[in-house]
Predict the structure.
Amino acid sequence: MVHRFNPRSGDLQCLQVGPLAPHLAGFAALLSRQGYCLASGWGKVRLIAQLSKWMQRKRLAPNQLDEQRVAVFLKTCRRWIPPYAAGRATLALLLRHLRQSNAIPARSTPIPRDDLGRMEQEYEEFLLRQRGLKPASAKAYLPVVRRFLGHRFPAGKVRPTALRASDVTDFVLHDSSHRGGQSAHQTAAALRSFLGFLLQQGRVQTNLVAAVPTVAHSRLAGLPRFLEPAQVERVVRSCDRRKKMGKRDYAILLLLARLGLRSGEVLGLTLDDINWRAAELRIYGKGARLDRLPLPQDVGQALAAYLQSARPISSSRRVFLQSQAPYEPLAGPCCIGNIVRTALARARICSAHRGAHLFRHSLATTLLRTGASLAQIGQVLRHQQPETTEIYAKVDLKALRALAMPWPGGAS
């Protein structure tokens, strides 16, 4: 039988050597809270003990430990430590634990050595502090800046005052030649943002934003991707609810299918966001928008089943946690996307689009076919602009048939 990792203080005495000895018990308690089994937990504790002995030989104090010294330790001792990836993850967890307990200084932001790196860092801070973008959104702009500056200043010396309108148009024409329409459109938008930053900061004297060519792109150019209602049910019911992971994934898929939630909204859901008495969910959407949505009966039952019998014990208030230790919240929209892709494969449904948004589009399409108006669909999906919902008019075949002109010459 596998026991939870819960070491006694006496078990740790033989390992408490070196500058990290006072922190070994606290780290072991953290591993226990995160649900590691006995063998895995002890392997991680022994690794930290070896790091402590290495630091003692190098005469390093705890407050001198950082990512660079951890990397040196891993490189020096690769022959006898656990698999490299597992060892790196363990030591990253240790650094986070020591920083949270104020045993070592907070991680400092590295100062870029070249002009390009410094410009990227300043622009990212501008997006985060003055524009209020989320870190993930801000980082999506940086590759465009890197490509633009690298194209204009290949030698590495960045001189914003030397930028001209022709530099902007040349880059857009060159960069968009090997990109799709959506990617080229996003590149142009990011470039306008960066050039506006340069003007606001006084790095350029001419407003170059207008020099960015307009990239042909229509929001309504494609068809919304969706599944038929029977296919949605097959995907949802493919989860094996006899298993803990199956209960979790079933609840997640129902939130996507019944309420049309975005992956980030599912990830951000906390225990405090569920109002069982009022049968509603509190959802934080795009632009820090707060909505209260009704909790359908089947979704509520799935959430209750997961919370009562499948969710690991954790101090985290997030609803959905990893199914294996460490029992931390699911991190990143890719986790939800992986759950969707796995469920589609189990249900043997082939779809060119396999992300979480597939269920959102499927819900909108089903509502339209059952008589809901575009305005009503926009309310369900919580669109801030009515134009966002217009794409679903393309799947309203009944209305489109009424607009179709008769074929010249009649039916063949």
Q: What stands out?
A: The chain has a mean pLDDT of 82. The chain is about 50% helix and 5% strand. The first helix runs from residue 9 to 12. The CA atoms of residues 74 and 85 lie 10 Å apart.
